[in-house]
Sequence to fold (202 residues):
Amino acid sequence: MSALLEIREASKAFGGVQAVTRVALEAQKGEILSVIGPNGAGKTTVLNMISGFYHPDTGRIALEGHDVTDLSPSRIAELGIARTFQNIALFRGMTVLDNLMLGRHVHMKTGVLGAFAYWGFAQKEEVEHRRRVEDIIDFLRIQDLRRRPTGSLAYGLQKRVGRWRWTRRSSFSTSRWAGATTRRKRTWRASSSTSTRSGASL
Fold:
């Protein structure tokens, strides 16, 4: 059985600076992995290669056995790899439900005209994605918050919504642990543990 995510001998250089050299790792479904190192060690570069923002100079990256090394970030997102950042980056004036629905747009096939008409396939597709979002809301146990603006939520809840807005198979985030409070560390662990139910977290 192939790993959910596999990196084989990936290297990346920027001019004369070798950011990462022959990186190799595997992530199985349900795993939480951490990439640890000092500033400048190449941690963010590895995540950027996985999510398609950078392409490795050498090596291979595969998702469930399929080569994604040279795919664009949008195509990789469609396949289910989500990248989150240290800033939460939610639309604070929009509701939890709307933010989660916004994250589903990369998986929707309806064009602009079809969405404007909102009939037939477009309507069915939105209903299906709304069902998926309602499942996420139920899983996170935030049913009573679905109509609340995300800007009014506690920090930990915003982090969970932000992570699950994009998650389908795998999620990756860059987080600074140095100086983090115990409460924030617990929030990150809880958020990561929920995302692994459907994939892996790095």
Summary: The domain at 5-201 is CATH 3.40.50.300 (Rossmann fold). The longest helix spans residues 121-140. The beta strands are 5-14, 17-27, 58-63, 66-67, 81-84, 170-173, 200-201.
